[in-house]
Amino acid sequence: MLDKAWVHLCRADPGYKSGAWKFVRDVSAALGDIEMIICPCKDCRNVVRQLNSVVVEHLVIRGMDEAYKVHSDWYHHGDVKSVDEFQSKPTQWNEEVFELYKAAEFFDQELAFRGDLADQPVGDLSEIAEGEDQQEDEFLAKIRDAETPLYPSCSNHSKLSAIVTLFRIKTHNGWSDKSFNELLQTLPSMLPDGNVFHTSLYDVKKFLKSFHMGYEKIDACVNDCCLFRKKLKKLDKCPKCNASRWKTNKRTNEVKKGVPQKVLRYFPIIPRLKRMFRSEDMAKDLRWHYTNKSTDGKLRHPVDSVTWAQMNEKYPSFAAEERNIRLGLSTDGFNPFNMKNSNYSSWPVLLVNYNLPPHLCMKKENIMLTLLIPGPQQPGNNIDVYLEPLIEDLNHLWKNGELTYDAFSKSTFTLKAMLLWTISDFPAYGNLAGCKVKGNMSTCVIEKVWLQHTDIGKRRLGLMEKLSIGESQEF
Q1: Residue 419 and residue 269: Cα distance in Å, rounded?
Q2: Contact 324, 417 (CB under 8 A)
Q3: Three-state DSSP class for 329?
Q4: Predicted model pTM
Q5: Rounded-to-integer distance, Cα 278 and Cα 349, Å
Q6: Are 35 and 148 in the same domain?
Q7: Is residue 255 part of a domain?
Q8: pLDDT digits over 310-364, tens only?
């Protein structure tokens, strides 16, 4: 058994570093004095292999992945009680993924006794339960396939971990699809017989998409007039500006039907929010806001804000369910691939989950990318066109909610969500909220009038004068 006491020390403690070195040496010796082992730090998360010295450096600087730190067996590093026990737990390769999708053990029973479903016919309830059971069986089959060893005697990589490792290297180093395809075609011939490695990028993407980790592609008008969805799904031209939906060959003027000029990428939020409650630890963290409001009047988290309290007072039934989600929306443009000399701009739309504690809600892995609005120009005031699918899902979560399984309480509930506020700079604020941010009646000018004609504003202006902050700087 590997020594785990050192991981609970402060990383500044010399004992932590010596413990990390002992851990690395023990793992390396157990695996045959190898120079590279799987790195369990917060960033590598047992996917990337690193030199032993680099693993120690990562552990000291970044710390160990929290989920792995508290795990009873460090199975990625050979710390299992027996081979039979390891083989009897086929889900250990992807425990976090498995937890997210794990079927609700008491789902059928809970569903039958739900008060808000009492008016539904028994047949409808059984159909819903059967649908959930079928989804569970399908996902378990996918998990078993993903956990297949890369080749019969492989103990370090499963089919999924090998694909994720290579995909991460491709992304970090900017490999082209062509070079990645060639690598995938070459690797199987270098691996032992019986390997299950995919031989093309298409197959890899198809495999990853089967876990519902993909996105929806929605064709958009090249002039940002509309999205070709629902009633407009079959149209070839924009009903407003008459622009073609499809690209045109500049040499022959031939329309390339099936190749859209502009594509919006939407990452659906409802299944992602539901999956968060399938993890027992995450379901517990999503309740943090309910019992951790500040008692000394100081603002340490949005739960301590006036807006949060006002929304609780206005919608008491929503506030009564501690698992209901509060969200913040943020958007801005950026130039992809460091093309600062180009006018191409993409606009991501992000959601922040404020149910989580302060040390988690702003972590990059917990900030949800929901929309990726394409360029080359910013959407401007037409951003509302691209927000349609997201707003529809938010409206559904606010009005109707979604039946969700909670792994922490082992029960089901109706998950609802509200959008508390948006976060953006003034230009994006002008587009997003429809406010003027320049000119005679801009938001800045209105704020200046407020400062000059209210008691609070006058006091603020007096403080600004004492601090020698001129109006030109403030406005």
Answers
A1: 13
A2: yes
A3: strand
A4: 0.61
A5: 25
A6: no
A7: yes
A8: 999 999 999 999 999 999 999 887 776 555 555 667 889 999 999 999 888 888 8
